[in-house]
């Protein structure tokens, strides 16, 4: 796949990648829309079926590719559409945070929030809070580092075969 | 008008060294600088790591003597937790440690230092390597060398997990038991090792001692320094690689101090020079008086030559005989001839082999209780061993969770750094005349410190990198007027 | 006809990779028969000029081990890349940064400060520090500048293949040489090792239970380690599930957990992230407090999950460094 | 990340919807279109007023046919809204629908962003993300799973009753589960219904007995749902049938046992729930004459035999049919069904929470529900409006919005109070001739015939005072007030504070979710609004659907509403359930996970993580295997797999990584 990266504007605004669970937070952010709540424009929402799908590498990659913050939205404890995916998310998140702290990534940059489908206002509040916090912190600037390599080529080709 | 010769780097040693030879107008040597141009900072990035990881992390300081670092760190970890190593755990550690010392000494004699003697410094570079050695001593011997090392290293792999970067050392003992079958195999291998060591001393006598020219170099002024010596000695004052007290003797061979590693900062300081990444340890009580010999200089040496000078003898009978023969032949203690290190190393080769056998025969080796579980809060700890290349000190402080807050390492070759620098300078002065620099001369200069089997990877805890050796001679205007390329010789 | 030429060079290496070649033992003779070593500094006196004299691509295969931290390392890597048909990153350091890449957790100045000023045994009244350019009264002395951070080989030059391990198992080297000789090579960029995690064929896999198993992480010194049972099931942090096999389970057989020196399998992406995700998922707790209590048993995630791979990690290094431009 | 195109070189078409002005007013759709056109793999990009319209969809179909578009991105509303619409457009043009990706630039951009430039930039980022993602898309087939024909209806109020009957009439078998001993719910307690004033019982009880008699309805009263598992089309519902100590199959409700029950003295009897405590009942009782099933129940908290283990057991002797069984225990039954309808209703606001109105402190302060019973012919007073001292009130004050439209309690309007207050005003006046005052904030009478009813009452001479009541007190300031309750309120129409002495105060309590609504919602895996009402999937377009397919809501459990609305919802829910069942199958989104055996090391990490036990280890091959039929596609195993061997269709690592990079590739 050719690199489609467009030149990053000199004075770009803080950018937050948000991973939202389809059943709660994603729906809540739709509700925020239907309720015409306005909030900070920094988030780019990526929908997953469950916060349990979120691999720590998604978070790292987002920061690496130029995100200044990452927000994860999942169902409240006990509410998971798949019974306990949000607990798996919590466990990974708590470990990831320890690593990020060692790497000098400020605490506010990466957040996990439990937001129910009805809590549109919470989506607004959390987004605004985070945008402010990150504006204060400034850009994350991990783009500069030498790239890690692509995933193994051999199995990629095999995978293409397996999948189709 | 001055000229500047750069020798960068030196081959057939583990690690990176560089020589700058500055000639005066007459073409004589004004000053030869031995530089170690790398640093990696293990001490720094050990901070924040759990103490039990130190043995595995520090072994990466050197892949040639990983066991030495692993063991020094493991002993320091014992100390950090204030826990005794379980007796059987200690036996297992010591067997592996002597086995390692054995095969490492063998490696150096046959693969690295050996070629200078066995093949000879005037031989073409294509022969100055293990292949050349095998050519000289015969393929059968070569195969025997290889097989011996393989058997020892396979056994250590079984017991220590890995041979290159072992994993078995833990606070209070080791991670893995030794089975009865394994012990039997240890005995078998240890017996072979003793045989092999005796055979190798034989090779040395035949090839080196019977060669007037070689003996001539060994005794020559160009390869001699009267310095202090340091080494670990056991309770009987005999050479011990794994544990003991640090003993220092003067140029006259007289004992000057004997201390436990905990007190190393009272006895040793490291001097910094702006032109080398390696720090130069010296005897604190005497002080740093520059790169000088004699009783008044704090410069001291470690490794086989030093250990034999410092100790009262070898702990095992056959090695003791070899020890006596060594000093008789070279005119009594202490021996100041750098090149004699090759011989001293073989005396130790035999000593290590005998210790392997002794331990392997100890029935406690297969006891189930291999480790004492620490109960105390971790604080600070010190560990010392005699690496093949000399005294190795690890020193750690940790928080109450056992995370390292401070790490300080004084490493084998590093102790020799000052003496090596002096050897290089001395050799250069004696060998280079009227600016004439050729391949043989350069190799002989290299021999001056190859004898130390120096590992500058260790010395700076820097990972070494090698570039080829060539010498450039510049005039005052830094115009290149002569270039000697050893690989074109 | 002449034998194919081979090279074996070290950048920032501990020499363990060279030892692993020597550990081919008897096989080394076979290798020496099959290929013509034109460059092997640790063992032979051939020099850089020999290499420069060769035509581009004349070296059939060159193995480079060690991480890259100095200009000299980079120059040699570029030279050997040019002269070699196949360039192989040999060993963890060259492959992913290795142990020295832990240095990327600190800045260059932090390192110099401790080593030459703050260490308890350093005596440095003049506050000297090694300087790249020093004017001695006899003349000028040069030292190579050492970089802000540690890179893997493929972060400096194009790499054809990787051989993982710290140090790599000689069997992998042997197989690689044979592959080159036979010309039967996998796609460029492949890691020349089995592409399955260590759990495959692990002698202890059957003792690993099928339920979330971690109620507490134990540090190896805290417990007597069972010689048969799955180490994770004993609460010991074993990276086997996330780490490429092919090492012969040596650490497991040594009754110690895998620390990940073989790196990730090809599909796993970031080694540490893969390991963290897998390990954390098995933590048997559902409240933040309980999860945290259990995770306290992993006091050093960065040093544990990225011990050999900091240069290849997505985060690469502490931001203080990467801001400075990597 | 990796650089392999799973399904060949993409030819992407991007379509940007204006959604009238909904998007176009905030997003520069033209520049977004041009931006999209420049992205790799994009062969054409268009913008259009309404992409979801026929011409819009036709545009896509035509481009697929004419221009060989093999990947489609539509930037418009939320995928939860129109994903299906556009997928169908792809299918119609012969393109696999999973080569489609949606960018949500309305709900998550134009509707929530103030600044047009910001909105446009964000929209472009989301479009770039969708384009990068769709290039990695793979062709997939939806899974078809047969649907179970039965339906479980939870709640036996008018909503549940109507839904159950509708389905039963359509030939579906219904399990109607009711917590109380009888169905009927609140409606059964009412006397008349507004605005027509027809008798609640007269219209409800026929439907109740119809339920009781219907061959397609299994009626389980005095029962509760313990657990629900499975997914749409195939649920497993566990029902606990509480022991009523009476054999339902033989009891005919003759009430001989009630006669015989030893609890004769008033003080040993217990408050009668049906009459909201205005009368007492015995340990064995029939909730009310038309109770369905017509079967008594024994209250374990009142029955001597069950409490103390010793009693004359006169009831047993009295029952010729030997229906009484003290040994009876709770019975747990499990049923399978294809659809679930929740009609669990509401509870009324507890008037004790507004102490200023004196409920519980003054005998003559009643709640509206209590008055419903008082005016009811079958009630404790036989329909006579009597105060506790037996006298008839001459002046009555009805206070609206008790617990409603009140930030201290519930901010929302309970919607039915105005109307039922008027109804009660009418009935009280009718029965007693008393003067009735209505204290209201706003008189809310929207609905067919409602406003007319209001007018009628005004004509009848009902008094109205506009203003929130400050307090109800018995502290008399004048002789006229002596022995009366004084209602203090500000009359905002004439702008003065007023003190109005009355004999009886009626508190028009609002409607609230059941105390255990939270548990119930969890059990059925649906969401609640912040107030605790069950949350519909879409407030307008899916008012009886929930976010869990196969589960519908009807009646007041979704929010306050009157009977006609409730019945309408119940019918709607039944209709939706019928549509599902008669389709005979459900199409499952193919977002299931699978294991690449070539990459799996058999490390067992994934096995314990699957909440549906879909993963097992093939001991022969030493690799994990996923049973696709059991996999629900959460992706937890995929995130955990340390070998990247587990992958999730529609959400592969590559797709997500591309989406991340795409979203960040434009500042």
Task: Output the keywords.
heterotetramer, B: about 500 residues, alpha+beta, Cytochrome-c3 Hydrogenase, chain B, 4-stranded mixed sheet, 3-stranded antiparallel sheet, 16 strands, disordered C terminus, D: about 675 residues, alpha/beta, 5-stranded parallel sheet, 17 helices, 34 strands, disordered N terminus
Strand content of chain A: 5-15%
| DSSP, total strands of chain B | 16
Residues in helices of chain B, as a percent range: 40-55%
CATH superfamily of the domain at 82-379 and 416-430 and 439-458 in chain B: Cytochrome-c3 Hydrogenase, chain B
CATH architecture of the domain at 82-379 and 416-430 and 439-458 in chain B: Orthogonal Bundle
- Give the neighbour order of strands across the main sheet of chain B: 8-7-6-11
Number of helices of chain B: 16
Largest sheet of chain A: 4 strands, parallel
Highest CATH level, the class of the domain at 82-379 and 416-430 and 439-458 in chain B: Mainly Alpha
CATH topology name of the domain at 82-379 and 416-430 and 439-458 in chain B: Cytochrome-c3 Hydrogenase, chain B
Oligomeric state of the chains present here:
heterotetramer
Unreliable residue stretches of chain B: 456-489
Shape of chain B: globular
Describe the fold and architecture:
The complex is a heterotetramer of chains A (164), B (489), C (326) and D (667). In chain A, 40% of the residues lie in helices and 14% in strands. Chain A is of the alpha/beta class and 164 residues long. Chain A has one domain (21-142). A four-stranded parallel β-sheet of chain A has the order 2-1-3-4, with helices on both faces. Chain B has 489 residues and is α+β, with helices and mostly antiparallel strands. Helices cover 42% and strands 17% of the residues of chain B. Chain B has 16 helices and 16 strands. In chain B, strand 4 (169-170) and strand 5 form a beta hairpin. The longest helix of chain B has 30 residues, at 180-209. The two termini of chain B are 27 Å apart. Chain C folds into three domains: 5-99 and 150-182, NADH:ubiquinone oxidoreductase-like, 20kDa subunit (Rossmann fold, 3-Layer(aba) Sandwich); 107-147, no CATH class; 205-317, no CATH class. Chain C contains twelve helices and ten strands. In chain C, strands 2-1-3-5-10 form a five-stranded parallel β-sheet, with helices on both faces. Chain C has a two-stranded antiparallel ribbon with strand order 4-9. A two-stranded antiparallel sheet of chain C has the order 7-8. The termini of chain C are far apart. Chain D is globular.
């Amino acid at each position: 796949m050719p690199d489609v990266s467009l030149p990053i504007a000199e004075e770009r605004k803080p950018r937050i990648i948000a991973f939202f669970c389809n059943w709660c937070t994603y729906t809540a952010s739709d509700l925020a829309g239907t309720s015409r709540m306005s909030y900070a424009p920094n988030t780019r929402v990526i929908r997953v079926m469950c916060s349990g799908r979120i691999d720590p590498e998604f978070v790292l990659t987002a920061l690496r590719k130029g995100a200044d913050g990452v927000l994860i939205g999942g169902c409240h404890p006990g509410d998971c559409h798949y019974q306990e995916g949000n607990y798996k998310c919590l466990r990974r998140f708590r470990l990831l945070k320890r690593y990020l702290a060692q790497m000098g990534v400020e605490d506010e940059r990466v957040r996990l929030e439990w937001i129910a489908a009805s809590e549109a206002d919470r989506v607004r509040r959390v987004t605004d809070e985070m945008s402010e916090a990150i504006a204060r912190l400034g850009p994350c600037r991990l783009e500069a580092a030498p790239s890690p390599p692509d995933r193994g080529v051999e199995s990629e080709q095999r995978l293409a075969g397996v999948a189709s | 008008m001055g000229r500047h010769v750069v020798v960068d780097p030196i081959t057939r040693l583990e690690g990176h060294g560089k020589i700058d030879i500055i000639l005066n107008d007459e073409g004589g040597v004004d000053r030869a600088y031995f530089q170690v141009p790398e640093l990696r900072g293990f001490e720094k990035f050990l901070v924040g790591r759990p103490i039990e990881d130190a043995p595995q992390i520090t072994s990466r300081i050197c892949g040639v003597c990983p066991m030495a670092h692993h063991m020094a760190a493991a002993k320091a970890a014992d100390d950090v937790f204030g826990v005794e190593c379980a007796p059987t755990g200690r036996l297992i550690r010591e067997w592996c440690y002597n086995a390692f010392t054995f095969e490492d000494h063998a490696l150096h004699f046959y693969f690295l230092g050996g070629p200078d003697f066995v093949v000879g410094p005037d031989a073409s570079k294509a022969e100055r390597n293990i292949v050349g050695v095998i050519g000289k001593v015969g393929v059968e011997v070569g195969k025997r060398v290889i097989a011996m090392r393989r058997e020892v290293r396979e056994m250590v792999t079984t017991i220590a997990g890995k041979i290159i970067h072992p994993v078995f050392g833990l606070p209070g003992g080791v991670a893995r038991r030794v089975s009865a079958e394994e012990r039997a195999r240890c005995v078998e291998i240890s017996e072979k090792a003793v045989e092999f060591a005796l055979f190798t001393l034989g090779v040395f006598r035949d090839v080196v001692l019977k060669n007037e020219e070689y003996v001539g170099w060994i005794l020559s002024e160009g390869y001699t320094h009267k310095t202090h010596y340091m080494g670990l000695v056991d309770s009987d004052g005999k050479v011990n690689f794994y544990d003991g007290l640090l003993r220092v003797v003067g140029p006259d061979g007289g004992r000057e101090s004997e201390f436990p590693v905990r007190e190393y900062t009272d006895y040793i300081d490291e001097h910094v020079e702006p032109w080398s990444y390696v720090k130069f340890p010296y005897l604190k009580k005497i002080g740093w008086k520059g790169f000088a010999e004699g009783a008044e200089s704090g410069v001291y040496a470690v490794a086989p030559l030093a250990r034999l000078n410092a100790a009262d003898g070898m702990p095992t009978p056959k090695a003791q005989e070899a020890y006596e023969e060594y000093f008789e032949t070279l005119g009594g203690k202490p021996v100041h001839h750098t090149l004699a290190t090759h011989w001293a190393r073989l005396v130790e080769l035999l000593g290590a082999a005998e210790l392997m056998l002794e331990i392997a025969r100890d029935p406690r080796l297969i006891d189930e209780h291999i480790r004492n579980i620490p109960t105390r809060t971790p604080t600070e700890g010190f560990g010392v061993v005699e690496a093949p290349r000399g005294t190795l000190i690890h020193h750690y402080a940790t928080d109450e969770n056992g995370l390292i807050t401070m790490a300080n390492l004084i490493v084998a070759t590093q102790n020799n750094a000052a003496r090596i620098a002096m050897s290089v300078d001395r050799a250069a002065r004696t060998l280079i005349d009227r600016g004439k620099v050729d391949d043989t001369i350069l190799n002989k200069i290299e021999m001056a410190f190859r004898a130390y089997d120096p590992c500058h990877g260790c010395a700076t805890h820097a990972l070494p990198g090698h570039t080829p050796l060539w010498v450039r001679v510049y005039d005052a205007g830094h115009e290149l007027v002569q270039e000697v390329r050893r690989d074109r010789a | 006809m002449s034998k194919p030429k081979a090279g074996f060079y070290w950048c920032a290496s501990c020499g363990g990779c060279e030892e692993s070649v020597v550990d081919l033992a008897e096989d080394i003779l076979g290798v020496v028969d099959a290929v013509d070593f034109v460059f092997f500094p640790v063992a032979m006196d051939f020099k850089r000029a020999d290499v420069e004299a060769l035509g581009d691509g004349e070296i059939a295969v060159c193995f480079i081990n060690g991480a890259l931290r100095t200009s000299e390392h980079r120059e040699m890597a570029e030279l050997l890349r040019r002269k070699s048909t196949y360039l192989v990153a040999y060993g963890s350091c060259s492959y992913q940064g290795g142990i020295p890449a832990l240095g990327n957790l600190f800045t260059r100045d932090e390192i110099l400060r401790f080593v030459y000023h703050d260490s308890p045994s350093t005596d440095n009244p003049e506050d000297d520090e090694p300087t790249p350019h020093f004017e001695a009264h006899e003349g000028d002395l040069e030292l190579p500048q050492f970089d802000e951070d540690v890179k893997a080989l493929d972060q400096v030059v194009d790499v054809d293949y990787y051989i993982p391990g710290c140090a790599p198992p000689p069997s992998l080297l042997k197989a690689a040489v044979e592959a080159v000789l036979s010309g039967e090579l996998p796609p460029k960029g492949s890691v020349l090792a089995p592409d399955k995690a260590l759990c495959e064929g692990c002698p202890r896999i059957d003792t690993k239970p099928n339920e979330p198993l971690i109620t507490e992480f134990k540090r190896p010194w805290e417990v007597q380690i069972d010689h048969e049972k799955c180490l994770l099931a004993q609460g010991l942090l074993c990276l086997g599930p996330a780490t490429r096999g092919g090492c012969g389970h040596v650490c497991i057989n040594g009754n110690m957990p895998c620390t990940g020196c073989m790196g990730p399998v090809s599909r796993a992406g970031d080694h540490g992230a893969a390991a963290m995700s897998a390990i954390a998922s098995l933590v048997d707790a559902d409240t933040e407090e309980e999860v945290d209590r259990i995770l306290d048993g992993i006091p050093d995630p960065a040093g544990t999950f990225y011990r050999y791979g900091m240069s290849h990690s997505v985060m690469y290094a502490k931001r203080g460094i990467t801001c400075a431009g990597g | 990340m990796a650089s392999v195109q799973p399904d060949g070189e993409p030819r992407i078409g991007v379509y940007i919807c204006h959604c009238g002005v909904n998007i176009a007013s905030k997003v520069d759709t033209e520049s977004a279109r041009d931006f999209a056109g420049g992205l790799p793999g994009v062969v054409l990009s268009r913008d259009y007023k309404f992409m979801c319209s026929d011409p819009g969809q036709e545009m896509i179909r035509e481009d697929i046919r004419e221009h060989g578009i093999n990947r489609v991105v539509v930037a418009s509303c939320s995928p939860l809204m129109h994903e299906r619409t556009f997928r169908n457009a792809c299918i119609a043009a012969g393109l696999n629908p999973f080569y489609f990706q949606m960018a949500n630039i309305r709900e998550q951009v134009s509707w929530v962003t103030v600044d047009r430039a910001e909105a446009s930039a964000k929209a472009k980022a989301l479009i770039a993300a969708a384009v990068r993602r769709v290039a990695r898309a793979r062709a997939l087939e939806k899974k078809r799973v047969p649907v179970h024909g039965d339906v479980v209806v939870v709640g036996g109020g008018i909503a549940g009753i109507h839904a159950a009957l509708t389905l039963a009439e359509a030939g579906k078998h219904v399990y109607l589960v009711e917590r109380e001993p009888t169905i009927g719910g609140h409606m059964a307690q009412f006397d008349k219904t507004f605005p027509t004033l027809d008798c609640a019982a007269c219209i409800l009880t026929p439907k109740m007995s119809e339920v009781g008699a219907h061959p397609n309805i299994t009626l389980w009263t005095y029962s509760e749902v313990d657990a629900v598992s499975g997914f749409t089309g195939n649920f497993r519902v566990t029902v606990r049938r509480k022991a009523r100590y009476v054999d339902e199959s033989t009891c005919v409700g003759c009430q001989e046992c009630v006669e015989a029950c030893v609890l004769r003295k008033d003080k040993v009897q217990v408050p009668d729930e049906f009459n909201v405590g205005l009368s007492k009942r015995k340990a064995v009782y029939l909730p009310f004459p038309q109770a369905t099933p017509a079967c008594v129940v024994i209250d374990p908290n009142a029955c001597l035999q069950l409490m103390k283990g010793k009693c004359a057991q006169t009831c047993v002797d009295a029952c010729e049919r030997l229906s009484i069984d003290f040994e009876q225990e709770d019975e747990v039954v499990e049923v399978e069904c294809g659809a679930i309808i929740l009609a669990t209703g509401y509870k009324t606001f507890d008037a004790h929470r507004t102490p200023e109105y004196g409920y519980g402190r003054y005998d003559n302060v009643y709640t509206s529900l209590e008055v419903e019973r008082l005016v009811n012919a079958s009630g404790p007073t036989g329909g006579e409006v009597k105060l506790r001292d037996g006298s008839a009130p001459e002046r009555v004050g009805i206070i609206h919005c008790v617990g409603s439209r009140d930030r201290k309690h519930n901010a929302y309007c309970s919607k039915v109070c105005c109307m039922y207050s008027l109804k009660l005003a009418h009935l009280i006046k009718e029965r007693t001739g008393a003067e009735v005052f209505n204290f209201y904030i706003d008189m809310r009478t929207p609905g067919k015939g409602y406003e007319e009813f209001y007018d009628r009452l005004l004509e009848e001479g009902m008094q109205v005072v506009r203003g929130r009541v400050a307090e109800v007190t018995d502290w008399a300031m004048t002789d006229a007030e002596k022995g009366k309750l004084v209602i203090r309120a500000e009359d905002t129409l004439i702008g003065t504070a007023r003190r109005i002495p009355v004999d009886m105060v009626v508190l028009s309590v609002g409607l609230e979710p059941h105390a255990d609504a939270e548990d119930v919602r969890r059990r059925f895996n649906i969401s609640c609004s912040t107030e605790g009402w069950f949350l519909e999937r879409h407030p307008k377009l899916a008012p009886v659907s929930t976010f869990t397919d196969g589960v519908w809501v009807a009646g007041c459990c979704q929010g306050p509403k009157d009977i006609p609305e409730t019945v309408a919802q119940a019918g709607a829910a039944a209709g939706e359930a019928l549509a599902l069942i008669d389709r005979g199958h459900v199409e499952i989104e193919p977002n299931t996970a699978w294991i690449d055996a070539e990459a799996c090391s058999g490390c067992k990490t994934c096995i314990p993580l699957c909440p549906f036990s879909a993963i097992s280890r093939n001991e022969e091959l030493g690799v994990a295997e996923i049973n696709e039929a059991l996999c629900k596609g959460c992706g937890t195993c995929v995130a955990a797999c340390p070998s990247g061997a587990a992958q999730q269709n529609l959400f592969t690592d590559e797709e997500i990584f591309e989406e991340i990079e795409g979203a960040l590739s434009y500042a």
